[in-house]
Amino acid sequence: MKDLKHLIFFENLLQDAQNELVTQAVNEGKHALGYNCYYIPEVLLNLGDCFSTRLRAPRCTSTDVATYYMTGRTCPYVRSILERAIEGGYNHISAVFGSESCAAMERMEEHLYLLNPIKHENFFITIIDPPIKGDKTSLNYYKVQLKKHILTPLEQVLGVDTSDAAMRAEIEKFNELCDVVTEIGDFRKLPNPPITGYEFHAIQLVSEVCPHELILPYLKETLAELKKRKPDPEFPFRARVVVAGSEIDDPEFTKLVEMCGAMVVADRYCFGSLPSRERIEIADGETAFDAICRHYLHWNQCARFMDGPKIDQRHTELKRLVDEYHADGIIYENMKFCEFWSYEKVLASHVLSEECGVPCCTIEKEYALGSVGQLRTRFQAFVESLEIKKLNA
Are 36 and 55 in contact (CB under 8 A)? Predict the structure, then answer.
């Protein structure tokens, strides 16, 4: 296929946390607000003169200093974020809105406060205590946490308008972005898509780390280009897979999977579009804030949720993605030392393979793409097993 016009531009934007568009927005007087979990509603961080940017540590190959504070037996993602902060990579950020998604995440966020590595005038960090169930009581608790730790700081520290009218206006803008990214992602459902999983991974990531109003024109232009783009005469991959799990913010991981013969047709992982790019719908008689809280609690697929309905939802959602995107199997990933996703990976792979009949390949990886030889071998073997299953059928 012909190269996408803006792909190199998107790739360059992902090379640094303070990329070209982030720098442009900051120079225009906007506040960059960092966050690191779906528990933090992205739409709230784009109110007023603020914009959200999800924390990444691209090209982080060493976490020696962060390991001194957090030990080497903690999640490499959070250590990489702390390392990059100590290096001065987030000095453009006005605030970090954190979530106690796990003990390692909270510890990293506490070090951002204790060590004060982010040198920005009036910088502050706030941390919510997210619920672990999806029932009504948890929803009410979630609302209290978001009001106290997100809306109040936005109002009192940054002077942001958090009225219902302001939220409704921002939801409209957010839905426009979601519609564009979703329509691009839906091409992956086609028998021979005009887009690869690697290209979509880059598109989804830039939509999370760049100011929405600056990246949206490029995404719209890419969507128009994809509608006219002609795929290869024959589907160039040997299999179609869903990738699920924890943090995957390096498109090179998706490229590795696809080089082994499996197209990534759905991205159900942290930093992925499923969930994160669903429209926020406001019910009759519902406030915008209530709709946001309900939306994020419902769609959240975090392995931190311990109640039966949310566990079942995670498995049901993956089976739905396999059917809807016509996938042959699932690659289930967890970050090394990740407590929640390591347990979830074992349970989900058993349920999906034994009860749903979906082949699963489970892997554990570092934050920075390493052990490429081992991963390549695993992926190639999995693709071959999927081909054998097709032949036997």
Answer: yes
* Confidence at 308, pLDDT banded by 50, 70, 90: very high
Give the whole-angstrom CA distance, residue 196 versus residue 347.
29
Tokens of 322: 């396999």
Quote the pLDDT of residue 127.
97
Q: Going by C-beta distance under 8 Å and a sequence separation of 6 or more, which residues neighbour residue 325?
A: 188, 189, 240, 242, 265, 266
Give the phi and the psi of residue 115 in degrees, each rounded to 5: -85, -20
Beta-ladder partners of 96 = 34, 125
Q: What is the pTM of this model?
A: 0.96
Residue pair 26/91 in contact (Cβ under 8 Å)? The answer is: no
- The number of CA neighbours under 13 Å toward the Cβ of 75 is 22
What pLDDT score was predicted for residue 292?
A: 98
CA distance 228 to 212: 24
Nearest C-alpha neighbor of 181 from the set 113, 98, 273: 273
- What type of residue is 272? G
Phi, psi of 203 (to 5 degrees): -65, -45
In this structure, the dihedral spanned by the alpha carbons of residues 171, 176, 178 and 181, taken in order and rounded to 10 degrees, is -160
Upper half-sphere CA count for residue 354 (Cβ side, 13 Å): 6
What was the pLDDT predicted at 390? 85
Give the amino acid at 78: V
pLDDT digits (tens, 9 = 90+) for 9-56: 999 999 999 999 999 999 999 999 999 999 999 999 999 999 999 999
Residue 93 parent element (H or E): strand 93-99
Buried b (16+ CB within 10 A) or exposed e, 294-304: bbbbebbbbbb
Residue with tokens 């939220």: 167
Segment 169-228, tens digit of pLDDT: 999 999 999 999 999 999 999 999 999 999 999 999 999 999 999 999 999 999 999 999
Tokens of 33: 């607000």
- Which helix (DSSP H) or strand (DSSP E) does residue 363 occupy? strand 360-365
Give the tokens for residue 171. Answer: 């939801």
pLDDT for residue 55: 96
Could you tell me if 224 and 180 are in contact, meaning their C-beta atoms sit under 8 angstroms apart? no
